[in-house]
Design goal:
Layout: H1 3-6, H2 11-17, E1 24-25, E2 29-32, E3 44-47, E4 52-55, E5 60-62, H3 64-72, H4 76-85, E6 106-111, H5 116-124, H6 129-135, E7 137-142, E8 148-155, E9 161-164, E10 169-172, E11 178-180, E12 186-190, H7 193-203, E13 210-213, E14 232-236, H8 241-253, E15 257-260, H9 271-280
Parallel strand pairs: 12-13, 12-14, 14-15
Antiparallel strand pairs: 1-2, 2-3, 3-4, 4-5, 6-7, 7-8, 8-9, 9-10, 11-13
Length: 281
Amino acid sequence: MNCRNANKISIVEFLKREGMRIAKENERDSWFLSPFRSESTPSFKVDKTKNLFYDFGEGIGGNLIDFVMIYKKWDLRKTLNELSKGSFSFNQHKPKQPTKKAAKYTIKEVRSISSPALIAYLEERAINLDFAQQFCTQVHYQFTSEKTYFGLGFKNDVGGYELRNRYFKGCLGSKSTTTITQDSSTLSMFESWSDFLSYLTLKKQIPHEDFIVLNSTFLASKCVNKLNGYEKVKTFFDNDEAGYRATLLLQSKSTCAFRDLRKHYSDFNDLNDFLLHKRIG
């Protein structure tokens, strides 16, 4: 099987074969709970017309081959070989006349964190509220319905927001890293806003360092050139395969003193998990 034929296989059909169920659907799109993380609100969209996927939480998308290589962690040869074994229907999506797209979301208000529910959420994660107030906001937003939602917003470098509350994990706008500079020769890097704020909470201060929050390990490769000019780079990524790959990539490209600090919380999933257990202990 070649790439052209493989990408004619319906992504929706492939996901169903993998045991995933459609959470909601309209004429153009099918929505699933993301296969890359646990969530209760579907943020993984398949455009049935173009046969393309997009995961709003991870900020990644592409065709079927792209998805299978990421999801299965296979190389291209194995992906094509395995797809050729399946009795998939070659759903050749015929382009339809494009309809005018409505905005996927509308941000209604951005303000300081004041919601008791969001404050309680931060407390549950043992994150210092003062630090959260400095780097996060309370974002009120709408999707296609009239209902307004709100969550903690962590702004990225292109104006998008990482959105979190007890029930939702996603991104409004374009996915990107978040860079915070203090004219330092040391750069500390984190996977997520919660790990970054956990670091500040553990330190009980904002160290004189520059910070980059990936917001997704898929963006680690975008940060390689940003390492230039630093005397020291410290990484605080998750103790999983994605965290390992991101660490290895940046370490291999770094020309300065590089410190992988996962050893300090090697028994825990990530820095926030370490902070939570430290509080309980």
